[in-house]
Structures are given as structure tokens and as C-alpha cells.
Write a structure and sequence with these properties.
The complex is a heterodimer of chains A (about 250) and B (about 300).
Chain A lengths: L1 E5 L2 E3 L21 E3 L1 H15 L5 E8 L3 H11 L3 E6 L6 H15 L3 E5 L10 H9 L2 E12 L2 E8 L2 E8 L2 E5 L11 H9 L3 E4 L11 E7 L8 E2 L3 H10 L4
Parallel strand pairs in A: 1-4, 1-6, 4-5, 5-11, 6-10, 7-10
Antiparallel strand pairs in A: 2-3, 7-8, 8-9
Chain B lengths: L1 E5 L10 H12 L2 E8 L3 H9 L5 E6 L8 H12 L4 E5 L2 H14 L4 E4 L1 E4 L2 E6 L4 E7 L4 E5 L15 E4 L9 E8 L12 E5 L10 H9 L3 E4 L1 H5 L20 E5 L5 H4 L7 E6 L12 E4 L2 H11 L1
Helix pairs in contact in B: 3-4, 5-8
The chains are: A alpha/beta (about 250), B alpha/beta (about 300).
The complex binds flavin-adenine dinucleotide.
Flavin-adenine dinucleotide (FAD) sits at the interface of chains B and A.
Keywords (chain A): Electron transport, Transport
Function (chain A): The electron transfer flavoprotein serves as a specific electron acceptor for other dehydrogenases. It transfers the electrons to the main respiratory chain via ETF-ubiquinone oxidoreductase (ETF dehydrogenase).
Family (chain A): Belongs to the ETF beta-subunit/FixA family.
């Protein structure tokens, strides 16, 4: 079976972002970009499925501008068999992304699509669930463990109360949590080879989907900054301060 | 305007985020209906009826709705969402799991994790782990919204006397079934709503040592939290994780003990009223946002604290 993995190029998680002074967005000039961390977990999961002979082919898909090729090269380096870039110069919302991914699913007929539970830039946590609903596939979100058994997956999910296990039959959409696995570090020869692999490119507007944003961004602002407080000498002084502040 | 609030509950009682979600609904303004989808959730229905500001409680009772399976809750909500101007639910694991499905079915772009209602169609939501706040206007006819509980004060649990109406459900999705739940049992207050949270990080060193954190939490009648590193290392269960990809908390006092203060951790606790940091590294970023800091070894400081409390 084929496995489709969606990968997104985002501002690296170590970067402390800055809001543009005109309030239109976040400054992305000259900041380090990398693959959304959850997508590395998605790829790792797909690779493990391949190594366990559950999957035969791993296809990485990215939707974004030309530079998303870098992200797809990272996917190749981790072991993806093929890479598809859906090119767009505008930022698309999760709804539009899910619609495009549904089209790719239609063309490629995978049995499993793996997405990160959220992208660390927009933090929407929507795309996987939308894709699952559009396709009418089973949904397993926030996965911290996945066991493949006869056309189904016993999927353990991280919930607010602990863990829960559900059984989902294929085809299915999985969204990954960070504790699902430890993404492999690509080896140098794989990174070199990845540079030469072909990337299939399609224009986003060639799919006949309405990609226009539904949400109008009114403004983007920096949150109120928290001022640093004081260093106290010891526990007794701390308790005194907390009592003064009427917190205790 | 007519607003549907999808209640989060465990078939026995409402989960507190539902009350904060109602607070957001009240700010939007309009007639508020609460949907209780579950199985044998009579006590939840009674609770929902009594909530301040609710005019109707819809009850869908079906075994397929008992465990919050997203496909079934999503199908149910999709079937009635078109009757409302807004559908709201907590931005919890429950809400995040089903609401985007409704959005896909209705061809609506959901607004996730709002922290402020500017007007009936304009909302503020954090992006980039809370390092930016985006104000968005939704032009969809039905607005689908998940609400960050810590950003809205819960409505009163009493005072209402809403009418109850049954809602039929038969659109069961065959592909998914619930198997088991492994719930972390704790005598401590709930992390999301506790007045005081005591969190431990990687520096705690082991699961055994985490008892020090639990001891302080017990003394303060506080909830226990943890950094991702502490959860990854097995010192604390996953539901204790505070941060961008864990829970968001905003207690009166947040103790960050042996936690460096990575942006991803700050995303989950920076709205706390008072932040106390205990860390042996004077340069740890957590001190930049802490109101009170103690530079020192937790194994000295916490026992001292236990003594003077
Ligand atoms: C996509 C993504 C999402 C993430 N989401 C989250 C999230 O939701 N929540 C989260 O917390 N993290 C998250 N992280 C991880 C985050 O980046 C940090 O790695 C993590 O928060 C570090 O945890 P820590 O502070 O416990 O450990 P460290 O950064 O290792 O800090 C340990 C601290 O303990 C101190 N210390 C050590 N021993 C002692 C002692 N005896 N006494 C006192 N102090 C001591 C050290 O000085 C140090 O400051 C995420 C990362 C990524 C990439």
C-alpha cells in the first residue's frame, strides 16, 4: 500500500519570531526555516511502515512556494520514495490545503495519509481532520502509538485525561504527536542523493479548487510582554512575597 | 444570532472548558443552545440546563456517541450546524478532534483556539506558540470556533432552567471504534483550572524524584504539570504536559521547577498571574518571565519551601 505524508515548511522551532511593525504578519525574511517537527514524526512513521512491509511506497507532498522543495528534499533524505510539490505563492488556509491533499489522494490512491497534528506556525490543528472528513476515511488524531493489524490500526491517542486507544479501519488519516516515534537523522549519502531526485510539481490553481482565503486577517500583533521580576534569596522570602501579593 | 455550544463531558459531568466556551458565546451574544452528545448522560443534561444563559439543551443519546469518536460527533454536529450562526466548542482534545470535520463538511474555515471575541465575526487567536496574536474576520455564514478555556472566565453553573429537546442520531461511522481508555487518576485539582500549578522539568532527573514536585503540589493543593522533556522521559504522564502542544494553563501561581523556559513551554503558561521559577541556572530563559525566581538546586529549595509553607 502507498502512504501519503504531508510536509510543511515552517519557521524553525528555535526561532523567536518577530511581528512586522505594520501589523500585517510575521517577519520571515532571513529566518531559519525547516520541516514542521510533527511532519518528521509522520515521515518516520511511514518509513517504519515500509520497513515492516506494511507500506510499499512513501509519497511526500508539500504545498507552498518553490522553497518547499527544500522540505521535500529533507523528506527524500529521510527515505521518501517520491515527492510532490503543489506550488502556490500565497499562503493557503487549512481548508484549501485539505482540499488539495484530497485531490492528490484521488490521484495516488494511498491507504493511509499521515499528517502532523498541527503546524507550529499557524497552530490551527485542522488539516488532518478536514482531510479525513472530506475523504470519508477513518480518523486517528494525536497518535502516540500505531499498531497495524489486518487492514486496521490500533491507534493510541494522547488526550487531555491520559491515553485512549481506538481501532480504525483503512483507509485512514493519522495525525501525529511528538511521542509517536523518534525521527531518524538522515545520513550524509542520503542527503546528497536527495538533492538529485526529481520532484513532481503541479500548480495549486491547476486543480480547479477555490483556494481563496475565508478568513480576513485584520491584524497581527505581538502579545503584551511579561516583565522579568525579582530574584529572591530563599524559600522564606518567596513565601513572604507571595503572601504580600495575596497569592497565598 | 443563534449559537450552538457543543458540550464536552464524560457522560457523568461537564468538563470545565464548556463553561468558558459558554462565556465566549455570551460575549458574541444571542440565543444559546447546548448540545450534549453522549450515552446515558442524564446528569450532564441536568447540569447543562442549569447553566447561566442557556435557553435550550439538545440531547443526542446513542452508544456511538459515548466515547467522543470524532467521526460520529462530527456527523451529528454537521447535521444541525447550518441552523446556527455560530458553533463553539472548547479547544481541547475533544473539540480539536471533531470540529475541523464539521468545517470540511460545511465548507467553512474554522477559527481555532480563540482568546478574544472582538465582535460577532472577528476573533483573536494566538499563532506561533503565542508569540503573535492574529485578529481574523470570518466571512463564512456559519462560524465554527474552538475556544481557549483559560482566556474566558467560566459562566455560573447555576441560575439557568433551559428546556430539553431530543436529537436523533443514526449516522454512525463504521470505520472507527473505541477500545480502551487509560486515564491518569489524580487526587490533585484539574490542571486546566487549578489555582496553583507546580510543574517539573528535565532537571528533576527521574520519575522517583518527581515525587518532590508532587509533594509540593499536595502541600499547596495544586495541580501537577510538566515540561515536554519531563513527559518524554517518563517522569510524568502525557496529560501533565504544559505548552504549545500540551495544555494551556493560567493559574494564580505557576511554579516552574527545573524547567528552562523554552518558547514552546512558555506558550502554555505565560498567561499565569504569578510565575515562580526555581532553577540552578541563573541564565535560564524562564527567569525572563518569572515574577519571583530562586537560583538554586531544587532539591535544596523545594524542601525548604515545604518547611516554611
Ligand atoms: C514542535 C515542538 C513542540 C513542543 N511542545 C512543547 C510543549 O508543549 N511543552 C514543553 O514544555 N516543551 C515543548 N517542546 C520542547 C521544548 O522545546 C523544550 O525542549 C522543553 O520544554 C524543555 O524542557 P525542560 O525545560 O524541562 O528541559 P531543559 O530545557 O533541559 O531544562 C532543564 C532545566 O532544569 C534546570 N535544572 C537541572 N537540574 C536542576 C536542579 N537540580 N535544580 C534546579 N534546576 C535544575 C537546568 O538549569 C535547565 O534550565 C516542544 C518542542 C517542539 C520542537
Amino acid at each position: 500500500m502507498k502512504v501519503l505524508v504531508a510536509v510543511k515548511r515552517v519557521v524553525d522551532y528555535n526561532v523567536r519570531i518577530r511581528v512586522k511593525s505594520d501589523g500585517t504578519g510575521v517577519d520571515k525574511d532571513n529566518v531559519v526555516m525547516s520541516m514542521n517537527p510533527f511532519d518528521e514524526n509522520s515521515l518516520e512513521e511511514a518509513m517504519q511502515m515500509k520497513e515492516a512491509d506494511v507500506a510499499s511506497e512513501v509519497i511526500a507532498v508539500s504545498i507552498g512556494d518553490e522553497k518547499s522543495e527544500d522540505t521535500l528534499r529533507s523528506a527524500f533524505a529521510m527515505g521518501a520514495d517520491r515527492a510532490i510539490l503543489i506550488k502556490t505563492d500565497v499562503e493557503l488556509e487549512p481548508l484549501a490545503i485539505a482540499k488539495l491533499l484530497a485531490k492528490v489522494v484521488e490521484q495516488e490512491s494511498p491507504q493511509v495519509a499521515i499528517l502532523g497534528k498541527q503546524a507550529i506556525d499557524d497552530d490551527s490543528n485542522q488539516t488532518g481532520q478536514m482531510l479525513s472528513a472530506m475523504l470519508g476515511w477513518s480518523q486517528g488524531t494525536f497518535a502516540s502509538n500505531a499498531e497495524h493489524v489486518d487492514g486496521a490500526i490500533n491507534l493510541t491517542r494522547e488526550t487531555d485525561a491520559g491515553l485512549e486507544t481506538i481501532k480504525i479501519t483503512l483507509p485512514a488519516v493519522i495525525t501525529t504527536d511528538l511521542r509517536l516515534n523518534t525521527p531518524r537523522l538522515p545520513k550524509l549519502p542520503a542527503i546528497m542523493k536527495a538533492k538529485k531526485k526529481p520532484i513532481e510539481t503541479h500548480e495549486a490553481d491547476s486543480f480547479g479548487i477555490d483556494l481563496a482565503p475565508r478568513l480576513e486577517v485584520v491584524s497581527v500583533a505581538a502579545p503584551a510582554e511579561r516583565a522579568a521580576g525579582i530574584i529572591v534569596a530563599n524559600a522564606a522570602e518567596l513565601v513572604e512575597k507571595l503572601k504580600e501579593a495575596e497569592a497565598l | 444570532m443563534s449559537i450552538l455550544v457543543v458540550a464536552e463531558h464524560d457522560n457523568a459531568s461537564l468538563i470545565s472548558g464548556t463553561l468558558s466556551t459558554l462565556a465566549a458565546a455570551k460575549i458574541i451574544g444571542g440565543d444559546i443552545t447546548v448540545l450534549v452528545a453522549g450515552e446515558n448522560a442524564g446528569s450532564v443534561v441536568t447540569e447543562a440546563q442549569a447553566l447561566e444563559g442557556v435557553s435550550k439543551v439538545l440531547v443526542a443519546d446513542n452508544a456511538a456517541l459515548a466515547d467522543g469518536l470524532a467521526e460520529n460527533i462530527g456527523n451529528l454536529v454537521s447535521s444541525i450546524a447550518g441552523n446556527y450562526s455560530h458553533v463553539l466548542t472548547p479547544a481541547s482534545n475533544f473539540g480539536k478532534n471533531f470540529m475541523p470535520r464539521v468545517a470540511a463538511k460545511l465548507d467553512v474555515m474554522q477559527v481555532s483556539d480563540i482568546v478574544e471575541v472582538v465582535s460577532a465575526d472577528t476573533f483573536v487567536r494566538p499563532i506561533y506558540a503565542g508569540n503573535a496574536l492574529m485578529t481574523v474576520k470570518s466571512n463564512d455564514t456559519v462560524k465554527l470556533i474552538t475556544v481557549r478555556s483559560t482566556a474566558f472566565d467560566a459562566v455560573e453553573a447555576t441560575g439557568g432552567s433551559a428546556a430539553v429537546e431530543d436529537l436523533a442520531f443514526s449516522d454512525v461511522f463504521a470505520g472507527s471504534s473505541f477500545i480502551s481508555r487509560d486515564v491518569t487518576l489524580s487526587e490533585r485539582p484539574e490542571l486546566g483550572t487549578a489555582k496553583i500549578v507546580v510543574s517539573g522539568g528535565r532537571g528533576v532527573g527521574s520519575k522517583e524524584n518527581f515525587a518532590v514536585i508532587e509533594g509540593l503540589a499536595e502541600k499547596l493543593n495544586a495541580a501537577v504539570g510538566a515540561s515536554r522533556a519531563a513527559v518524554d522521559l517518563g517522569y510524568a504522564p502525557n496529560d501533565c504536559q504544559v505548552g504549545q502542544t500540551g495544555k494551556v494553563v493560567a493559574p494564580e501561581i505557576y511554579f516552574a521547577i527545573a524547567i528552562s523556559g523554552a518558547i514552546q513551554h512558555q506558550a502554555g503558561m505565560s498567561e499565569s498571574k504569578i510565575i515562580v521559577a526555581i532553577n540552578k541556572d541563573a541564565d535560564a530563559p524562564i527567569f525572563n518571565i518569572a515574577d519571583y525566581g530562586i537560583v538554586g538546586d531544587l532539591f535544596d529549595v523545594v524542601p525548604e519551601l515545604m518547611e516554611v509553607l
